[in-house]
Amino acid sequence: MKSFTTSLVLLFCALFGNSEKAQENTTCRNIPGTAGYPSPDLWDALNATISGRLVNVVPSTKYCASLPGGGWYDLTPPSLCLRNATTCGQGDVPIYSVEAETVADIQAAVQFASTHNLRLVVKSSGHDYLGRSTAPHSLLVHTVNFKNISFADAFFVGKRNVGSAVTVGSGVHVQSLYQAGKQNGKIVVSGCHNSAGHSALSPTFGLASDNALEFNVVVASGDLLRVNIFYALRGGGSGSWDIIISATLRIFPTFNATSSLIILLALNNAAAASLATVHAQHIFDMDSVRAGQYFFLFKHSTEASTLSVLALNSYMPNTTTAQSTAILAPFLNASLALPDVQLISQQFVDGDIDDALFQADDSVGENTVLGSRLIPAGTYRDSPAKVGQVYKQLLDSGTVIVLSNSWTDCATLREIDAIRKQFKTQQLPILENISGPNAGSYSNEADVLEAEFKTTFFGPNYAKLSAIKRRYDPKDLFIVPAGVGSDRWDEWGLCQL
Ligand SMILES: *[C@@H]1O[C@H](CO)[C@@H](O)[C@H](O)[C@H]1NC(C)=O
Ligand SMILES: *[C@@H]1O[C@H](CO)[C@@H](O)[C@H](O)[C@H]1NC(C)=O
Ligand SMILES: *[C@@H]1O[C@H](CO)[C@@H](O)[C@H](O)[C@H]1NC(C)=O
Ligand SMILES: *[C@@H]1O[C@H](CO)[C@@H](O)[C@H](O)[C@H]1NC(C)=O
Ligand SMILES: *[C@@H]1O[C@H](CO)[C@@H](O)[C@H](O)[C@H]1NC(C)=O
Ligand SMILES: *[C@@H]1O[C@H](CO)[C@@H](O)[C@H](O)[C@H]1NC(C)=O
Ligand SMILES: *[C@@H]1O[C@H](CO)[C@@H](O)[C@H](O)[C@H]1NC(C)=O
Ligand SMILES: CC(=O)N[C@H]1CO[C@H](CO)[C@@H](O)[C@@H]1O
After folding, report:
1. Which of 50-59, 124-133, 320-329 is least confident?
2. Longest dimension (CA), the chain
3. Which of 229, 297, 425, 477 is the most buried (most CB within 10 A)?
4. pLDDT at 228
5. Going from the N-terminus, what domains does the chain have, and what CATH number goes with each?
Protein backbone atom coordinates (compact mmCIF):
# COMPACT_ATOMS: atom_id res chain seq x y z
CA MET A 1 0.00 0.00 0.00
CA LYS A 2 1.19 3.41 -0.82
CA SER A 3 0.21 6.41 1.18
CA PHE A 4 1.17 9.96 1.90
CA THR A 5 1.49 11.45 5.30
CA THR A 6 -0.17 14.74 5.93
CA SER A 7 0.61 16.21 9.27
CA LEU A 8 -0.82 19.17 11.04
CA VAL A 9 1.63 20.78 13.30
CA LEU A 10 0.30 22.70 16.21
CA LEU A 11 1.77 24.65 18.99
CA PHE A 12 3.00 22.72 21.94
CA CYS A 13 4.35 24.04 25.17
CA ALA A 14 4.74 21.09 27.47
CA LEU A 15 2.73 21.33 30.62
CA PHE A 16 5.30 21.40 33.29
CA GLY A 17 5.36 20.58 36.91
CA ASN A 18 1.75 19.62 37.40
CA SER A 19 2.13 15.93 38.05
CA GLU A 20 -0.57 14.83 40.45
CA LYS A 21 0.38 12.97 43.55
CA ALA A 22 -0.71 9.35 43.53
CA GLN A 23 -3.36 7.99 45.83
CA GLU A 24 -2.40 4.34 46.20
CA ASN A 25 1.17 3.20 46.30
CA THR A 26 1.98 -0.34 45.53
CA THR A 27 1.46 0.53 41.89
CA CYS A 28 3.48 3.75 41.70
CA ARG A 29 7.10 4.39 40.78
CA ASN A 30 9.35 5.74 43.46
CA ILE A 31 9.91 9.48 43.31
CA PRO A 32 11.90 11.76 45.61
CA GLY A 33 10.28 11.62 49.01
CA THR A 34 8.80 8.10 48.76
CA ALA A 35 10.21 5.41 50.99
CA GLY A 36 11.73 3.34 48.22
CA TYR A 37 13.50 6.20 46.41
CA PRO A 38 17.26 5.62 46.32
CA SER A 39 19.33 7.45 48.94
CA PRO A 40 22.18 9.75 47.86
CA ASP A 41 24.60 6.93 48.73
CA LEU A 42 22.89 4.61 46.29
CA TRP A 43 23.03 7.23 43.53
CA ASP A 44 26.74 7.71 44.29
CA ALA A 45 27.26 3.97 44.04
CA LEU A 46 25.53 3.91 40.66
CA ASN A 47 27.70 6.84 39.57
CA ALA A 48 30.83 4.96 40.59
CA THR A 49 29.70 1.87 38.65
CA ILE A 50 29.32 3.91 35.48
CA SER A 51 32.64 5.76 35.79
CA GLY A 52 31.11 9.06 36.92
CA ARG A 53 28.73 9.37 33.98
CA LEU A 54 25.70 10.22 36.11
CA VAL A 55 24.71 13.89 35.85
CA ASN A 56 22.05 16.08 37.38
CA VAL A 57 19.91 17.39 34.54
CA VAL A 58 19.54 21.16 34.44
CA PRO A 59 16.29 22.41 32.85
CA SER A 60 17.21 24.39 29.76
CA THR A 61 15.56 27.56 30.97
CA LYS A 62 17.47 27.47 34.23
CA TYR A 63 20.61 27.27 32.14
CA CYS A 64 19.43 30.02 29.76
CA ALA A 65 18.66 32.29 32.68
CA SER A 66 22.34 32.23 33.54
CA LEU A 67 23.32 33.58 30.11
CA PRO A 68 23.65 37.28 29.28
CA GLY A 69 20.17 38.58 28.55
CA GLY A 70 18.61 35.56 30.28
CA GLY A 71 16.44 35.79 33.33
CA TRP A 72 13.05 35.59 31.70
CA TYR A 73 12.17 32.62 33.89
CA ASP A 74 11.70 32.22 37.59
CA LEU A 75 14.62 30.69 39.40
CA THR A 76 12.98 30.16 42.76
CA PRO A 77 12.44 27.31 42.45
CA PRO A 78 14.43 26.68 39.26
CA SER A 79 11.87 26.09 36.62
CA LEU A 80 10.87 25.59 33.05
CA CYS A 81 7.58 27.32 33.74
CA LEU A 82 6.49 30.56 32.23
CA ARG A 83 7.12 33.53 34.39
CA ASN A 84 3.63 33.82 35.78
CA ALA A 85 2.90 30.14 36.19
CA THR A 86 2.41 28.92 39.70
CA THR A 87 3.66 25.35 39.51
CA CYS A 88 7.36 25.56 38.88
CA GLY A 89 10.22 23.18 39.39
CA GLN A 90 12.17 20.55 37.50
CA GLY A 91 9.01 20.08 35.42
CA ASP A 92 9.06 17.07 33.11
CA VAL A 93 12.82 17.13 32.94
CA PRO A 94 14.51 13.99 34.32
CA ILE A 95 16.37 14.42 37.60
CA TYR A 96 19.37 12.33 36.63
CA SER A 97 20.87 11.27 33.33
CA VAL A 98 23.23 8.42 32.58
CA GLU A 99 25.46 9.76 29.81
CA ALA A 100 26.15 6.24 28.60
CA GLU A 101 29.33 5.36 26.73
CA THR A 102 29.29 1.58 27.06
CA VAL A 103 26.73 -1.18 27.01
CA ALA A 104 27.61 -1.84 30.67
CA ASP A 105 26.59 1.75 31.55
CA ILE A 106 23.18 1.11 30.04
CA GLN A 107 22.82 -2.23 31.75
CA ALA A 108 23.69 -0.65 35.11
CA ALA A 109 21.09 2.09 34.58
CA VAL A 110 18.39 -0.41 33.59
CA GLN A 111 19.12 -2.60 36.59
CA PHE A 112 19.12 0.40 38.93
CA ALA A 113 15.77 1.64 37.61
CA SER A 114 14.30 -1.84 37.79
CA THR A 115 15.56 -2.54 41.32
CA HIS A 116 14.34 0.78 42.70
CA ASN A 117 11.14 0.99 40.63
CA LEU A 118 12.06 4.28 38.95
CA ARG A 119 10.51 5.97 35.95
CA LEU A 120 13.00 5.39 33.15
CA VAL A 121 13.22 7.36 29.90
CA VAL A 122 15.50 7.00 26.91
CA LYS A 123 16.82 9.70 24.61
CA SER A 124 19.23 9.76 21.73
CA SER A 125 18.76 12.90 19.67
CA GLY A 126 16.22 14.29 17.25
CA HIS A 127 12.61 15.28 17.45
CA ASP A 128 10.16 14.08 20.05
CA TYR A 129 6.65 15.26 19.25
CA LEU A 130 4.98 12.97 21.76
CA GLY A 131 7.11 13.78 24.81
CA ARG A 132 8.50 10.25 24.95
CA SER A 133 12.06 11.03 25.94
CA THR A 134 11.25 12.91 29.10
CA ALA A 135 9.12 12.39 32.21
CA PRO A 136 8.88 13.97 35.65
CA HIS A 137 11.05 12.49 38.42
CA SER A 138 12.70 10.16 35.92
CA LEU A 139 16.11 8.66 35.28
CA LEU A 140 17.24 9.29 31.70
CA VAL A 141 19.47 6.98 29.71
CA HIS A 142 21.14 9.17 27.11
CA THR A 143 22.57 7.23 24.18
CA VAL A 144 23.89 10.11 22.13
CA ASN A 145 27.50 8.95 22.58
CA PHE A 146 26.96 5.72 20.66
CA LYS A 147 28.43 6.96 17.42
CA ASN A 148 30.07 3.88 15.87
CA ILE A 149 29.53 3.30 12.15
CA SER A 150 30.84 0.14 10.49
CA PHE A 151 30.31 -1.18 6.98
CA ALA A 152 30.23 -4.82 5.93
CA ASP A 153 30.14 -6.25 2.40
CA ALA A 154 28.58 -9.46 3.65
CA PHE A 155 26.41 -9.26 6.72
CA PHE A 156 25.08 -12.49 8.21
CA VAL A 157 21.72 -12.80 9.93
CA GLY A 158 22.21 -16.19 11.49
CA LYS A 159 23.83 -18.16 8.68
CA ARG A 160 22.21 -16.19 5.89
CA ASN A 161 24.34 -13.68 4.00
CA VAL A 162 22.09 -10.67 3.48
CA GLY A 163 24.65 -8.61 1.60
CA SER A 164 26.03 -5.12 2.20
CA ALA A 165 25.07 -3.51 5.45
CA VAL A 166 26.02 -0.79 7.86
CA THR A 167 25.84 -1.01 11.64
CA VAL A 168 25.15 2.34 13.29
CA GLY A 169 25.17 3.30 16.93
CA SER A 170 21.96 4.82 18.23
CA GLY A 171 23.61 8.23 18.65
CA VAL A 172 24.66 8.55 15.00
CA HIS A 173 23.13 11.46 13.12
CA VAL A 174 21.74 10.85 9.66
CA GLN A 175 24.07 13.46 8.20
CA SER A 176 27.09 11.46 9.43
CA LEU A 177 25.62 8.35 7.88
CA TYR A 178 25.37 10.04 4.48
CA GLN A 179 28.93 11.34 4.76
CA ALA A 180 30.27 7.91 5.71
CA GLY A 181 28.07 6.32 3.02
CA LYS A 182 29.55 8.54 0.34
CA GLN A 183 33.09 7.62 1.36
CA ASN A 184 32.15 3.96 1.05
CA GLY A 185 30.13 4.31 -2.15
CA LYS A 186 26.93 3.32 -0.34
CA ILE A 187 23.55 4.80 0.45
CA VAL A 188 21.25 3.91 3.33
CA VAL A 189 17.48 4.36 3.29
CA SER A 190 16.87 7.12 5.79
CA GLY A 191 15.35 10.53 6.22
CA CYS A 192 16.43 14.05 5.50
CA HIS A 193 16.67 15.51 8.95
CA ASN A 194 18.97 14.36 11.64
CA SER A 195 16.20 12.61 13.43
CA ALA A 196 15.71 10.24 10.48
CA GLY A 197 12.12 9.34 9.65
CA HIS A 198 10.55 8.79 6.25
CA SER A 199 12.90 8.50 3.32
CA ALA A 200 12.90 10.00 -0.16
CA LEU A 201 14.32 6.65 -1.28
CA SER A 202 11.35 4.57 -0.16
CA PRO A 203 9.69 4.52 -3.61
CA THR A 204 12.87 2.80 -4.82
CA PHE A 205 14.03 0.72 -1.85
CA GLY A 206 11.06 0.43 0.51
CA LEU A 207 10.71 1.86 3.99
CA ALA A 208 13.69 2.27 6.27
CA SER A 209 12.15 -0.40 8.48
CA ASP A 210 12.00 -2.80 5.51
CA ASN A 211 15.78 -2.46 5.31
CA ALA A 212 16.53 -3.00 8.99
CA LEU A 213 18.32 -6.31 9.46
CA GLU A 214 19.23 -6.52 13.11
CA PHE A 215 19.31 -4.61 16.39
CA ASN A 216 21.45 -4.82 19.47
CA VAL A 217 19.28 -3.87 22.40
CA VAL A 218 19.35 -3.88 26.18
CA VAL A 219 16.04 -5.24 27.46
CA ALA A 220 14.33 -4.79 30.82
CA SER A 221 16.16 -7.75 32.38
CA GLY A 222 19.40 -5.92 31.65
CA ASP A 223 20.44 -8.51 29.05
CA LEU A 224 22.01 -7.45 25.77
CA LEU A 225 20.08 -9.12 22.97
CA ARG A 226 20.61 -9.38 19.24
CA VAL A 227 17.20 -9.22 17.61
CA ASN A 228 15.94 -9.23 14.08
CA ILE A 229 12.26 -8.88 14.77
CA PHE A 230 10.36 -7.13 12.07
CA TYR A 231 10.98 -3.53 12.99
CA ALA A 232 7.67 -2.21 11.71
CA LEU A 233 5.87 -4.45 14.16
CA ARG A 234 7.43 -2.48 16.98
CA GLY A 235 5.23 0.35 15.79
CA GLY A 236 7.92 2.95 16.23
CA GLY A 237 7.97 4.48 19.68
CA SER A 238 11.59 4.16 20.68
CA GLY A 239 11.91 3.80 24.41
CA SER A 240 8.88 1.56 24.66
CA TRP A 241 10.62 -1.81 24.24
CA ASP A 242 14.27 -1.64 25.10
CA ILE A 243 17.30 0.57 24.67
CA ILE A 244 18.80 0.35 21.22
CA ILE A 245 22.58 0.17 21.15
CA SER A 246 22.91 -0.19 17.40
CA ALA A 247 20.97 -1.06 14.28
CA THR A 248 22.20 -2.86 11.20
CA LEU A 249 20.70 -1.61 7.95
CA ARG A 250 20.84 -2.88 4.39
CA ILE A 251 22.76 -0.53 2.06
CA PHE A 252 22.89 0.05 -1.69
CA PRO A 253 25.47 1.36 -4.16
CA THR A 254 25.32 5.13 -4.50
CA PHE A 255 23.94 6.73 -7.64
CA ASN A 256 23.44 10.20 -9.02
CA ALA A 257 20.16 12.00 -8.60
CA THR A 258 18.54 15.35 -9.17
CA SER A 259 17.12 17.06 -6.17
CA SER A 260 14.70 19.89 -6.77
CA LEU A 261 12.98 22.43 -4.65
CA ILE A 262 10.01 24.36 -6.02
CA ILE A 263 8.44 27.08 -3.91
CA LEU A 264 5.09 28.55 -4.92
CA LEU A 265 3.13 31.36 -3.35
CA ALA A 266 -0.68 31.42 -3.12
CA LEU A 267 -2.18 34.82 -2.40
CA ASN A 268 -5.32 33.53 -0.66
CA ASN A 269 -6.88 30.34 0.71
CA ALA A 270 -8.81 29.64 -2.48
CA ALA A 271 -5.61 29.80 -4.52
CA ALA A 272 -3.85 27.59 -1.96
CA ALA A 273 -6.65 25.04 -2.25
CA SER A 274 -6.45 25.04 -6.06
CA LEU A 275 -2.70 24.60 -5.79
CA ALA A 276 -3.17 21.64 -3.46
CA THR A 277 -5.58 20.14 -6.00
CA VAL A 278 -3.10 20.61 -8.86
CA HIS A 279 -0.37 19.04 -6.73
CA ALA A 280 -2.66 16.08 -5.98
CA GLN A 281 -3.43 15.72 -9.70
CA HIS A 282 0.28 15.54 -10.49
CA ILE A 283 1.50 13.64 -7.45
CA PHE A 284 2.12 10.47 -9.48
CA ASP A 285 4.04 12.25 -12.27
CA MET A 286 7.37 11.28 -10.75
CA ASP A 287 6.53 7.60 -10.30
CA SER A 288 8.16 6.77 -13.64
CA VAL A 289 11.56 7.42 -12.03
CA ARG A 290 10.57 6.22 -8.55
CA ALA A 291 11.19 9.65 -7.11
CA GLY A 292 10.55 10.53 -3.51
CA GLN A 293 8.95 13.82 -2.56
CA TYR A 294 8.28 15.88 0.52
CA PHE A 295 5.66 18.57 0.23
CA PHE A 296 4.53 21.21 2.66
CA LEU A 297 1.65 23.63 2.34
CA PHE A 298 1.60 26.22 5.05
CA LYS A 299 0.20 29.62 5.89
CA HIS A 300 2.89 32.18 5.53
CA SER A 301 4.20 33.52 8.85
CA THR A 302 1.26 35.02 10.69
CA GLU A 303 -2.38 34.33 11.31
CA ALA A 304 -3.34 37.71 9.84
CA SER A 305 -1.62 36.92 6.55
CA THR A 306 -3.65 35.37 3.75
CA LEU A 307 -0.56 34.10 1.95
CA SER A 308 0.27 30.41 1.75
CA VAL A 309 3.38 28.68 0.49
CA LEU A 310 3.70 25.27 -1.16
CA ALA A 311 7.19 23.78 -1.05
CA LEU A 312 7.83 20.66 -3.11
CA ASN A 313 11.12 18.92 -2.55
CA SER A 314 11.85 15.95 -4.80
CA TYR A 315 14.66 13.45 -5.27
CA MET A 316 14.83 11.68 -8.65
CA PRO A 317 17.29 8.78 -8.88
CA ASN A 318 19.39 8.47 -12.05
CA THR A 319 18.02 11.59 -13.72
CA THR A 320 19.57 14.82 -14.92
CA THR A 321 18.26 18.33 -14.36
CA ALA A 322 16.89 18.37 -17.91
CA GLN A 323 14.94 15.16 -17.31
CA SER A 324 13.56 16.18 -13.95
CA THR A 325 12.60 19.62 -15.25
CA ALA A 326 10.57 17.89 -17.94
CA ILE A 327 8.92 15.58 -15.40
CA LEU A 328 7.92 18.51 -13.19
CA ALA A 329 6.84 20.81 -16.04
CA PRO A 330 3.19 19.70 -16.22
CA PHE A 331 2.77 20.36 -12.48
CA LEU A 332 4.55 23.68 -12.66
CA ASN A 333 2.69 24.84 -15.75
CA ALA A 334 -0.69 23.93 -14.30
CA SER A 335 0.19 25.65 -11.03
CA LEU A 336 1.27 28.86 -12.70
CA ALA A 337 -1.86 28.86 -14.83
CA LEU A 338 -3.90 29.31 -11.61
CA PRO A 339 -4.99 32.81 -10.65
CA ASP A 340 -3.17 34.22 -7.61
CA VAL A 341 -0.37 31.65 -7.70
CA GLN A 342 3.22 32.75 -8.24
CA LEU A 343 6.59 31.07 -8.47
CA ILE A 344 8.96 32.16 -5.71
CA SER A 345 11.88 29.96 -6.70
CA GLN A 346 12.95 26.71 -8.28
CA GLN A 347 16.22 25.00 -7.85
CA PHE A 348 17.71 21.83 -9.34
CA VAL A 349 20.91 20.16 -8.20
CA ASP A 350 22.54 17.13 -9.83
CA GLY A 351 24.88 15.01 -7.81
CA ASP A 352 25.59 12.09 -5.56
CA ILE A 353 22.52 10.92 -3.64
CA ASP A 354 24.43 11.02 -0.34
CA ASP A 355 25.14 14.71 -0.95
CA ALA A 356 21.55 15.38 -2.00
CA LEU A 357 20.13 13.94 1.20
CA PHE A 358 22.74 15.45 3.48
CA GLN A 359 21.43 18.33 5.56
CA ALA A 360 23.47 20.40 7.93
CA ASP A 361 22.32 20.78 11.51
CA ASP A 362 19.28 22.93 11.93
CA SER A 363 18.83 24.97 15.07
CA VAL A 364 15.54 23.78 16.43
CA GLY A 365 14.07 23.95 19.86
CA GLU A 366 10.40 24.51 19.35
CA ASN A 367 7.14 23.99 21.14
CA THR A 368 5.28 21.86 18.64
CA VAL A 369 2.67 19.14 18.60
CA LEU A 370 1.65 17.14 15.58
CA GLY A 371 -1.41 15.38 14.39
CA SER A 372 -1.37 13.16 11.34
CA ARG A 373 -3.20 10.66 9.18
CA LEU A 374 -2.03 8.37 6.42
CA ILE A 375 -3.97 9.29 3.29
CA PRO A 376 -4.78 6.45 0.88
CA ALA A 377 -3.10 6.87 -2.51
CA GLY A 378 -6.52 6.14 -4.02
CA THR A 379 -7.85 9.42 -2.66
CA TYR A 380 -5.15 11.28 -4.55
CA ARG A 381 -5.75 9.22 -7.67
CA ASP A 382 -9.55 9.33 -7.69
CA SER A 383 -10.50 12.59 -5.99
CA PRO A 384 -7.67 15.13 -6.07
CA ALA A 385 -10.16 18.00 -5.79
CA LYS A 386 -11.17 16.69 -2.35
CA VAL A 387 -7.58 17.13 -1.21
CA GLY A 388 -7.75 20.80 -2.19
CA GLN A 389 -11.10 21.23 -0.42
CA VAL A 390 -9.69 19.79 2.78
CA TYR A 391 -6.70 22.13 2.68
CA LYS A 392 -9.12 25.00 2.12
CA GLN A 393 -11.21 24.06 5.13
CA LEU A 394 -8.12 23.66 7.29
CA LEU A 395 -6.76 27.04 6.22
CA ASP A 396 -10.16 28.69 6.62
CA SER A 397 -10.56 27.20 10.08
CA GLY A 398 -7.49 29.10 11.17
CA THR A 399 -4.85 26.38 10.94
CA VAL A 400 -1.88 28.64 10.57
CA ILE A 401 0.57 26.15 9.23
CA VAL A 402 -0.06 22.78 7.73
CA LEU A 403 2.70 20.27 8.29
CA SER A 404 5.37 22.27 10.08
CA ASN A 405 5.17 24.86 12.79
CA SER A 406 7.09 26.70 15.41
CA TRP A 407 6.05 29.00 18.19
CA THR A 408 7.30 31.24 20.93
CA ASP A 409 7.21 30.47 24.64
CA CYS A 410 4.67 33.14 25.50
CA ALA A 411 1.42 31.15 25.50
CA THR A 412 -0.49 30.61 28.72
CA LEU A 413 -1.15 27.11 30.01
CA ARG A 414 -4.83 27.51 29.09
CA GLU A 415 -3.94 28.45 25.51
CA ILE A 416 -1.50 25.58 25.29
CA ASP A 417 -4.10 23.14 26.52
CA ALA A 418 -6.57 24.32 23.88
CA ILE A 419 -3.95 24.08 21.15
CA ARG A 420 -2.97 20.58 22.22
CA LYS A 421 -6.59 19.51 21.64
CA GLN A 422 -7.03 21.37 18.36
CA PHE A 423 -6.02 18.45 16.15
CA LYS A 424 -8.59 16.15 17.68
CA THR A 425 -11.44 18.61 17.98
CA GLN A 426 -11.09 20.79 14.89
CA GLN A 427 -8.70 19.40 12.32
CA LEU A 428 -9.19 15.66 12.41
CA PRO A 429 -12.88 15.84 11.38
CA ILE A 430 -11.80 17.79 8.28
CA LEU A 431 -8.85 15.53 7.53
CA GLU A 432 -11.04 12.44 7.75
CA ASN A 433 -12.71 13.54 4.52
CA ILE A 434 -9.60 12.33 2.71
CA SER A 435 -8.15 9.78 5.12
CA GLY A 436 -11.40 7.97 5.88
CA PRO A 437 -12.71 7.45 9.43
CA ASN A 438 -10.31 4.80 10.73
CA ALA A 439 -7.05 5.73 9.07
CA GLY A 440 -3.73 4.99 10.69
CA SER A 441 -1.11 7.49 11.73
CA TYR A 442 2.69 7.25 11.80
CA SER A 443 3.19 7.11 15.54
CA ASN A 444 6.45 9.05 15.74
CA GLU A 445 4.86 12.09 14.11
CA ALA A 446 1.45 12.12 15.63
CA ASP A 447 -0.87 13.39 18.32
CA VAL A 448 -0.15 11.97 21.75
CA LEU A 449 -3.80 12.60 22.65
CA GLU A 450 -5.21 10.27 19.97
CA ALA A 451 -8.44 8.83 21.40
CA GLU A 452 -7.93 5.35 19.94
CA PHE A 453 -4.15 5.23 19.89
CA LYS A 454 -4.05 1.42 19.98
CA THR A 455 -5.70 1.09 16.59
CA THR A 456 -4.62 4.43 15.12
CA PHE A 457 -0.94 3.62 15.75
CA PHE A 458 -0.84 -0.18 15.80
CA GLY A 459 -3.80 -1.30 13.67
CA PRO A 460 -4.77 -4.89 14.45
CA ASN A 461 -1.44 -5.63 16.17
CA TYR A 462 -1.90 -4.09 19.60
CA ALA A 463 -2.92 -7.20 21.54
CA LYS A 464 -0.04 -9.19 20.08
CA LEU A 465 2.44 -6.42 20.85
CA SER A 466 1.12 -6.07 24.36
CA ALA A 467 1.64 -9.80 24.95
CA ILE A 468 5.22 -9.58 23.64
CA LYS A 469 5.83 -6.66 25.93
CA ARG A 470 4.55 -8.55 28.97
CA ARG A 471 7.05 -11.29 28.23
CA TYR A 472 10.13 -9.10 27.80
CA ASP A 473 9.18 -6.23 30.11
CA PRO A 474 6.90 -7.68 32.81
CA LYS A 475 7.33 -4.66 35.09
CA ASP A 476 6.64 -2.13 32.31
CA LEU A 477 10.01 -0.49 32.79
CA PHE A 478 9.79 0.93 29.26
CA ILE A 479 6.62 2.98 29.00
CA VAL A 480 6.16 5.89 26.62
CA PRO A 481 3.08 8.07 26.10
CA ALA A 482 0.64 6.43 23.66
CA GLY A 483 2.99 3.45 23.35
CA VAL A 484 2.38 -0.24 23.91
CA GLY A 485 1.41 -0.79 27.56
CA SER A 486 0.86 2.91 28.25
CA ASP A 487 -2.86 2.27 28.78
CA ARG A 488 -1.89 0.54 32.02
CA TRP A 489 -0.30 3.77 33.36
CA ASP A 490 -1.22 7.35 34.08
CA GLU A 491 -0.26 10.20 31.74
CA TRP A 492 3.18 10.49 33.30
CA GLY A 493 3.94 6.78 33.55
CA LEU A 494 4.23 7.17 37.32
CA CYS A 495 1.28 5.17 38.63
CA GLN A 496 -0.55 2.13 37.32
CA LEU A 497 -4.23 2.63 36.66
C1 LIG B 1 2.78 7.02 47.45
O2 LIG B 1 3.37 7.68 46.35
C3 LIG B 1 3.08 9.03 46.30
C4 LIG B 1 3.70 9.62 45.05
O5 LIG B 1 4.38 8.68 44.32
C6 LIG B 1 3.61 9.71 47.58
O7 LIG B 1 3.24 11.04 47.56
C8 LIG B 1 3.05 9.04 48.81
O9 LIG B 1 3.67 9.56 49.96
C10 LIG B 1 3.28 7.56 48.78
N11 LIG B 1 2.60 6.93 49.90
C12 LIG B 1 3.17 6.00 50.67
C13 LIG B 1 2.30 5.42 51.73
O14 LIG B 1 4.32 5.64 50.53
C1 LIG C 1 29.29 11.47 39.27
O2 LIG C 1 30.65 11.39 39.40
C3 LIG C 1 31.35 12.40 38.69
C4 LIG C 1 32.84 12.10 38.76
O5 LIG C 1 33.19 11.66 40.01
C6 LIG C 1 31.01 13.72 39.29
O7 LIG C 1 31.67 14.75 38.59
C8 LIG C 1 29.51 13.92 39.16
O9 LIG C 1 29.11 15.12 39.75
C10 LIG C 1 28.77 12.79 39.82
N11 LIG C 1 27.36 12.89 39.52
C12 LIG C 1 26.46 13.11 40.45
C13 LIG C 1 25.04 13.23 40.00
O14 LIG C 1 26.72 13.24 41.62
C1 LIG D 1 32.57 1.23 19.10
O2 LIG D 1 33.73 0.86 18.45
C3 LIG D 1 34.85 0.74 19.30
C4 LIG D 1 36.08 0.50 18.44
O5 LIG D 1 35.83 -0.52 17.53
C6 LIG D 1 34.60 -0.40 20.30
O7 LIG D 1 35.68 -0.50 21.18
C8 LIG D 1 33.35 -0.09 21.08
O9 LIG D 1 33.03 -1.16 21.91
C10 LIG D 1 32.20 0.18 20.16
N11 LIG D 1 31.08 0.64 20.94
C12 LIG D 1 29.89 0.08 20.89
C13 LIG D 1 28.88 0.65 21.82
O14 LIG D 1 29.61 -0.82 20.15
C1 LIG E 1 27.76 10.83 -11.06
O2 LIG E 1 28.06 11.92 -11.88
C3 LIG E 1 29.44 12.23 -11.91
C4 LIG E 1 29.62 13.52 -12.66
O5 LIG E 1 28.90 13.50 -13.86
C6 LIG E 1 30.18 11.07 -12.53
O7 LIG E 1 31.56 11.34 -12.56
C8 LIG E 1 29.92 9.82 -11.70
O9 LIG E 1 30.50 8.71 -12.28
C10 LIG E 1 28.44 9.58 -11.55
N11 LIG E 1 28.24 8.51 -10.57
C12 LIG E 1 27.52 7.44 -10.83
C13 LIG E 1 27.40 6.44 -9.71
O14 LIG E 1 26.96 7.25 -11.89
C1 LIG F 1 20.74 3.84 -11.30
O2 LIG F 1 21.30 3.34 -12.48
C3 LIG F 1 22.23 2.27 -12.29
C4 LIG F 1 22.86 1.96 -13.63
O5 LIG F 1 21.87 1.72 -14.57
C6 LIG F 1 21.49 1.09 -11.69
O7 LIG F 1 22.38 0.02 -11.45
C8 LIG F 1 20.89 1.51 -10.36
O9 LIG F 1 20.10 0.46 -9.81
C10 LIG F 1 20.01 2.73 -10.57
N11 LIG F 1 19.62 3.21 -9.26
C12 LIG F 1 18.34 3.51 -8.97
C13 LIG F 1 18.09 3.96 -7.58
O14 LIG F 1 17.45 3.45 -9.77
C1 LIG G 1 4.95 24.59 -20.00
O2 LIG G 1 4.90 25.94 -20.41
C3 LIG G 1 5.97 26.30 -21.25
C4 LIG G 1 5.92 27.79 -21.48
O5 LIG G 1 4.66 28.33 -21.31
C6 LIG G 1 5.86 25.52 -22.55
O7 LIG G 1 6.93 25.84 -23.39
C8 LIG G 1 5.92 24.05 -22.22
O9 LIG G 1 5.70 23.28 -23.35
C10 LIG G 1 4.88 23.68 -21.18
N11 LIG G 1 5.14 22.32 -20.78
C12 LIG G 1 4.18 21.46 -20.57
C13 LIG G 1 4.63 20.08 -20.17
O14 LIG G 1 3.01 21.74 -20.64
C1 LIG H 1 -15.81 17.03 5.60
O2 LIG H 1 -16.80 16.37 6.35
C3 LIG H 1 -17.65 17.22 7.07
C4 LIG H 1 -18.61 16.37 7.84
O5 LIG H 1 -18.01 15.22 8.33
C6 LIG H 1 -18.37 18.16 6.15
O7 LIG H 1 -19.13 19.06 6.89
C8 LIG H 1 -17.36 18.90 5.31
O9 LIG H 1 -17.99 19.72 4.38
C10 LIG H 1 -16.45 17.93 4.60
N11 LIG H 1 -15.42 18.66 3.87
C12 LIG H 1 -14.99 18.30 2.69
C13 LIG H 1 -13.91 19.14 2.14
O14 LIG H 1 -15.39 17.32 2.11
C1 LIG I 1 -0.06 38.51 37.57
C2 LIG I 1 1.40 38.61 37.40
O3 LIG I 1 2.18 38.14 38.21
N4 LIG I 1 1.82 39.23 36.32
C5 LIG I 1 3.22 39.37 35.97
C6 LIG I 1 3.59 38.41 34.85
O7 LIG I 1 4.93 38.61 34.43
C8 LIG I 1 5.15 39.90 33.92
C9 LIG I 1 6.55 39.93 33.38
O10 LIG I 1 7.46 39.69 34.38
C11 LIG I 1 4.91 40.93 35.02
O12 LIG I 1 5.11 42.23 34.50
C13 LIG I 1 3.48 40.81 35.53
O14 LIG I 1 3.28 41.66 36.63
Report:
1. 124-133
2. 72
3. 297
4. 78
5. 9-141 (3.30.43.10), 256-361+373-440 (3.30.70.260)
